Amino acid sequence: MIIDIVTGVLLLVGALFFLAGTLGLLRFPDVYTRLHALTKADNVGLGLIVIALMLQADSWFVVGKLLLIWILILLAGSGVAHLVASTAQKRGLKPWKK
Amino acid sequence: MDTLYLSLALFLLLTLLVGMWRIFQGPTPADRMLAAQLFGTTAVACLLLLAQALEEQALRDVALVFALLAVVTAVAFVKRAWTAKDDH
Amino acid sequence: MTPVFLYALVGIVLFSIGLYGLILYKHLLRKILAINIMGSGVFLVMVALAARTEEGVPDAVPHAMVITGIVVAVSATALALALMLRVNEKTGQAVLPEDRET
Amino acid sequence: MEEIDLLLLFDAVLGFTLVWLAWQTLSSLDLFRAVVLFIAFGLLMALAWVRLDAPDVALAEATIGAGLTGALLLSALAQLSARQKHESETSLFLRLTLGVLMFFLLIGLGYIVFSLPPQALGLSVEVAKNIELSAVANPVTAVLINYRSYDTLLELGVLLLALLAVWSLGSASTRKSAFVNPVLDLLTRILVPVFILVSGYLLWVGAFAPGGAFQAGAVLAAAGVLLFLNDWHLESKYTGFALRSVLVIGLVMFIAIGFGFVFLDRVFLEYPPELAGGFILLIEAAASLSIGIILAALFLGRDPSVKSDSCSDIDTGVHK
């Protein structure tokens, strides 16, 4: 029962991070800040959802697979974020200033 | 519990729809591509929720493959398609 | 409306949109995208109709055909893109000769 | 809300988005935007397959539709000459006429589909009845490699033909990218083994659960694409005979095993049930290797054994 409640809360907070990431992608002024928003959804949002589902998993195999998916997304997300940001800088995109 | 999973999956699909605006708007190619990246992650989360709700193991494999393939498109974009002429 | 017919309908609409785009737009990349969308529409109709079984176990034959179809579609796309690049290299624009604007 | 309602709502949103994305992809004048929208379209198609109870197809779409096709399109787009003429608007009359025609087509096709019986077994009974004979528990794999193996055999041929055609077009100019990024290098080093592992997993699991040769091959191809994107190239001593034998091994293995049993009084491509399991795995392993390498070679776009002189246009920056 308690596990179900914890799962529910984690899922909801995770979904909230996805919402925040999406809104950030829409509202932030330039590539660099949007990257920041995107990685929140990638890392934290998915992470929370994965942890929630791990609590409900019925075998260690499923737990492992979920963890692998998250690690892959973490790796890919951070790698790609770096690539995009450094390429943007090389191409001369100026970071937004107030 | 299943209702929660399904409503969250639907919710994620809706955030995806909203995020589509960035693909339309740009302005730089990178912005469009970032939106597509977010699409990939959202789809992974959606698949994991569906896998739990519908009790279908295979959907986790689909999510795994999604997670892998997202990198390939992103790298293809950075290394090949992002050319200076497109930046405004 | 059951999900089966919903997706079959979506498939038909995709096919029609794809055909419209294939005929109307001149740039070869857009034509290639249009053919891919038409293909997706056909696949969607096939798989949707395969889900009409009673016991809830869909018919595996259309599924197998669609998987084959997806792989053929990607190889055809690769060939089409190579041809497009060739046309582009020779003429400077990626359109068919009859569509060329001078 | 009821779960069924939620799922139906999910389907409705998904269906609407698919149609809308397709329309926006095609009507977009900016080619890059069209390609990104098409990638998003592929992602959502995979979700549609999941909802239609077709996880095998979803796996194929996730690797190919959303991944490889996207990489192919992005790479081709980069090689188009910088100044593409913007298309002039087509006349309103033409668009209207075509629109009306397509509308009639839609009505006609819609009528046909809706007049089909809501329940139809198709061949599912036959597939289920003979599943024990096929030696695999996943019906889709059974259809692909056993019941309808002609399709799969010919498909391998189609892939090879496509590759031959691309090679015969000669070398499109390959642009080397300007910089080598240590992060990308590390990412490739970590991910390529994972790709290969997942590919093997999909191949193995294909016997009893969604997965199989095509999906495994496509994931393998993705590893190749990632390597090529990181400016990796096959050493020239492997590009000749070694590469070519890997390209055809799927086809050769398929035909050899197919013919092998002809001498034991069976028809072409019929396997004895007691041995079918092992042979199917053998064929699948060879086929996925071939499929993977062919798809990766299609991405590369030119015969690697032909020395290309077009690598001279490397732009400035740090080099390996």
Radius of gyration of chain D (Å): 23 Å
Q: What's the main sheet of chain D like?
A: none
The poorly predicted ranges of chain B are none
Number of domains of chain B: 1
| Backbone shape of chain B | flat
Helices of chain B, by number, come to 3
Mean pLDDT score of chain B: 84
Q: Label the structural class of chain D.
A: mainly alpha
The backbone outline of chain D, from C-alpha atoms, is globular
State the helical fraction of chain B.
Answer: over 70%
- Quaternary state of the chains: heterotetramer
Instruction: Kindly state the number of beta strands of chain B.
Output: 0
Proportion in β-strands of chain B: under 5%
Order of helices and strands of chain B: HHH
Which protein chains are joined by the largest interface, and how many residues does each one contribute?
C-D, 78 and 98 residues
Structural class of chain B: mainly alpha
Outline the low-pLDDT stretches of chain D: 310-320
- Overall pLDDT metric of chain D: 82
What is the gyration radius of chain B calculated from CA atoms? 15 Å
Major pleated sheet of chain B: none
Structural summary, described in words:
The complex is a heterotetramer of chains A (98), B (88), C (102) and D (320). Chain B has 88 residues and is mainly alpha-helical. Helix content of chain B is 84%, strand content 0%. Chain B is flat and about 45 Å long. Chain C has one domain (3-97): Helix Hairpins (Orthogonal Bundle). In chain C, helix 1 (3-24) packs antiparallel against helix 2 (28-50) and helix 2 (28-50) runs antiparallel to helix 3 (60-91). The model of chain C has no long low-confidence stretch (mean pLDDT 87). Helix content of chain D is 69%, strand content 0%. Chain D is globular. In chain D, helix 2 packs antiparallel against helix 3 and helix 3 packs parallel to helix 10 (213-229). The longest helix of chain D has 28 residues, at 273-300. The A-D interface holds A 72, 75-76, 79, 82-83, 86, 90 and D 178-179, 181, 183-184, 186-187, 190-191, 194.
